[in-house]
Specification:
This protein has eight helices and no strands. The protein is mostly helical. Helix 2 packs antiparallel against helix 6. The radius of gyration is 27 Å and the shape is rod-shaped.
Length: 251
């Protein structure tokens, strides 16, 4: 919802700037509407066009890298969960309690990995308690032979890796594009759109063009911001690896 409001606000700024400029420039004094003044306005707009293009390119690249990084980490996280479960199985029936807690945790992750809720990997109290319970059970096991000792040590290490990976995903879920950069870009684009209406004829074609252009630019920035937060909005990291992990744990 936050990204949608940001996109709507950007559209209002861009379309509003162009329409206001279109409607009020005729009221300017005659010496403000000369060719020299118009040329300077166009040059200033061109300068900010270049800067805006560079910033947009950097934002797209940053959002793409963030999305791909989190997608890889989700696959790694799911793989670590499966390996931990396999190690607990290798230990024997004594580790079934730990496996049940681990399965409950993965089930909660899958259940909350939907388009209208927070992702599983974002820290919450119940998920943390389930993982802590797995650690408590594994730590309380009493190995009867060398095989169980090795399995217990491996499970402890793998659990620590799962916990670390979970916190990495939680930190990455906040996005990497700073809000001041977005605000600065919107300010530049607002100036550019205001220049569109300067000395332009006020007719339906111009108004329609300004509205459509503002909507498309706002939609592009909205999608960039949404891709920078891969656990919310229409562009999300697929929960399929976690679903496959749950299927493996429940076999």
């Amino acid at each position: 919802m936050g990204e949608v409001l940001i996109g709507a606000a950007i559209f209002a700024c861009l379309a509003g700037a162009s329409l206001v400029s279109l409607m009020v420039h005729e009221r300017f004094p005659a010496h403000h509407l000369g060719d020299d003044t118009s040329a300077v306005v166009r040059l200033a707009a061109n300068l900010f066009m270049v800067m805006s293009s560079l910033v947009l390119g950097l934002m797209i690249n940053s959002a793409k890298n963030t999305f791909e990084s989190i997608n890889v980490n989700v696959h790694t996280f799911a793989t670590d969960l499966i390996l931990l479960d396999r190690t607990l199985r290798r230990y024997g029936p004594e580790a079934d309690g730990a496996r049940q807690s681990l399965t409950a945790y993965v089930q909660r992750v899958v259940d909350t990995s939907t388009a209208d809720s927070d992702t599983t990997v974002v820290p919450n109290r119940l998920s943390e308690l389930l993982l802590n319970q797995v650690g408590d059970i594994v730590g309380g096991l009493t190995p009867a032979n060398a095989k169980q000792t090795a399995a217990q040590q491996a499970a402890t290490q793998q659990l620590q890796k799962v916990i670390a990976q979970r916190w990495i995903l939680a930190e990455q879920s906040e996005g990497a594009i700073p809000a001041p950069l977005i605000a600065l870009l919107v300010a530049w684009l607002t100036l550019i759109f205001a220049s569109f209406g300067f000395r332009a004829p006020c007719n339906g074609t111009i108004i329609f063009t300004c509205l459509v252009s503002g909507a498309l630019v706002a939609a592009a920035i909205y999608l960039i911001i949404d891709m920078d937060s891969p656990f919310s909005g229409p562009i999300q990291v697929s929960p399929a690896p976690l679903q496959r992990a749950l299927a493996e744990l429940t076999q």
